[in-house]
Amino acid sequence: MMEKTKPSVSLDKQDNAEYVLTTDMLSKKYGSRYAAKDINIRIRKGEIYGLIGRNGAGKTTIMRVLSGLSNATSGSYSLFGKTGRGIKSVMSKVGSLIESPGIYSNMTAYDNLKIKCIALGVNKPGYIEQLLELVGLSQAGRKKAGAFSLGMRQRLGIAVAIVGDPKLVILDEPINGLDPQGIVDVRNTLSRLRDEKGMTVMISSHILDELGKLADSYGIINEGMLIDEFTNEELHRRSGNYTVISTDNDRKAFELIGGLKGIEAELEENRIRIKTELSRENNLVKYLVDNDIFIKEVKTESFSLEEYYLSVTRGGSDDNG
Asked: Measured between alpha carbons, how far is 105 from 157 in angstroms, rounded to an integer?
């Protein structure tokens, strides 16, 4: 059980950034229900953008529209500066992996990539070998995909998505269901796409600990609406650090702290988490000691992406609809 108070959060946008993808009040409606409503996303060139949300929040719906697999009900979006009918001329610069990898299990990894190369008219010596090496499958290129682990299948799906060297790659939950090693392998693959190939990557996930190790910017989707968008730098500036105090009477200490101005406190099991200026930490400890509170431990920690996400969405349960 946790008692806490939380600050309000506002949207931060940088209008002077170079964007490869933007949306303007983009909405998708099924019958009378909005799966996504009034979405305004900004994705910068050469970054990994994490789209965060619970199952059923609208992440896949948005990605299907941006990948050209579904039409928006209203609103618009821009790709590489093109809008409306002009988007068709730049869709070849977009690669996508939505829901599950579209690969042939009875064919080798090499042949799966060869089929995609033929479809796109790609005929470069050594090209398929380069793709396999890029996604860490150079030793499994002649192995049938049906014998692959889930993580290997995901990496092959990513390789298929980047045939033709797209400038933007849209990936829906590529680490969902993977074991720890599979997650690390996919994470390394996506980092290489950004760092070595200069690709911009949009990735959705609800595994926030892993996404926090990978993404440069984030958008939070909740009940079909984009409620926040921020960079790693903005995340650090907004949430920063907090102080953790453990005492011999946390309930009494929490009540004492609650009477002070400029301090946000959360009473957790066996500790109190406090958000305040670090310069006030010593005075706070002295205040508690003067009020007969014995301090067991004082330390400074940082907010995680998961904690920030929960503070913005106010927790809540999954919606699997």
From this structure: 12
200-205 and 48-52 strand pairing: parallel
Classify residue 294 as exposed, middle or buried by CB count within 10 Å of its CB (0-12, 13-18, 19+).
exposed
Q: What is the distance, to the nearest Å, from the Cα of residue 142 to the centroid of all Cα atoms in its chain?
A: 33
Q: What domains lie within the chain, and their CATH numbers?
A: 3-236 (3.40.50.300), 241-302 (3.30.70.100)
Is there a contact between 50 and 218 (Cβ–Cβ < 8 Å)? yes
Q: With beta carbons less than 8 A apart as the criterion, state whether 310 and 54 touch.
A: no
Spell out the SS3 assignment of 72-135: CCEEEEEECCEEHHHHHHHHHHEEEECCCCCCCCCCEHHHHHHHHHHHHCCCCCCHHHHHHHHC
Per-residue CA distances from 259 to 161, 230, 283, 284 (Å): 56, 32, 14, 12
Beta carbons within 8 Å of 186's beta carbon, 6+ residues apart:
151, 154, 155, 158, 174, 175, 178
Please say whether the beta carbons of 311 and 240 come within 8 A: no
Two tokens, residue 284 = 């706070």
- Amino acid, single-letter form, for residue 309: Y
Which residue pairs, CB below 8 angstroms and at least 24 apart, start in 84-87? none
pLDDT tens digit at each of 321 positions of the chain: 344 433 333 334 444 458 999 999 999 999 999 999 999 999 999 999 999 998 889 999 999 999 999 999 999 999 999 999 999 999 999 999 997 778 899 999 999 999 999 999 999 999 999 999 999 898 888 889 999 998 899 999 999 999 999 999 999 999 888 888 888 998 999 999 999 999 999 999 888 888 888 999 999 999 999 999 999 888 877 777 788 999 999 999 999 998 888 788 888 888 998 877 766 778 888 999 999 999 999 988 777 888 888 888 875 444 433
Neighbours of 82 (CB within 10 A): 15
- In 3D space, the residue among 225, 95, 254 whose CA is nearest the CA of residue 171 turns out to be 95
What pTM was estimated for this model as a whole? Answer: 0.78
